[in-house]
């Protein structure tokens, strides 16, 4: 994978293309500009003082919470930024908010979120230890999958969160978030079972908790994945 600066530059270009598409469709002027996206790229050149991460995250949330860069803002009730430890070693990334998340403004609070909490507890994690967020910050209509242009537009926000928090481990919950971050079309089955490099962090892919509610047979594979995650976490801490 190329350098961080190259990666963020490519994302800025993708976001600019998505903005142009929105303009061509006549969806109205955005409240967050291309210049702001470029400022995110500029910030990515350096880390954030660990003692300032909570403040920087909150400021960033305030800066983007009224975003109208893509069509998803049209049905938004609440912007769903993220929740958890601002200095987390482990970050979980889903695809986008659902109805419950849109109402509360917090990721993974519905049935899938309750299952995620149980999974975290089973490997001795909780929301105070890890950080949880999504690729897109606004709920797609009827809980449909986020569209490629929507994810491209929102991706700089997620990348900035990663840059601020600097997790050592990232766990993608489901195919969509994994493909978006890894820039691949490979199916989930080919992405699971191993760590991928993501800008110096180790990225693991597992099933989305919502999929486990529909297909309980995936629970065994998920358990294997999160045990691998926990073992790597302990190894990094020298346990």
Features:
alpha/beta; Uracil-DNA Glycosylase, subunit E; disordered N terminus; globular; 239 residues; 48% helix
Describe this entry's structure for a reader:
The protein is an alpha/beta fold. The chain has 10 helices and 6 strands, in the order H-H-H-E-E-H-H-E-H-E-H-H-E-E-H-H. A 6-stranded mixed sheet has the order 1-3-2-4-6-5, with helices on both faces. Helix 1 packs antiparallel against helix 6. The longest helix is centred in the N-terminal third of the chain and has 21 residues. The two termini are 30 Å apart.
Write the layout of secondary structure elements.
Layout: H1 4-24, H2 34-43, H3 53-64, E1 83-84, E2 90-94, H4 99-104, H5 111-122, E3 131-134, H6 148-165, E4 169-173, H7 175-182, H8 188-191, E5 196-198, E6 201-206, H9 209-214, H10 219-236
Parallel strand pairs: 2-3, 2-4, 4-6
Antiparallel strand pairs: 1-3, 5-6
Helix pairs in contact: 1-2, 1-6, 3-6
Quick synopsis:
With 239 residues, this protein is α/β, with parallel strands linked by helices. The chain has one domain (4-236): Uracil-DNA Glycosylase, subunit E.
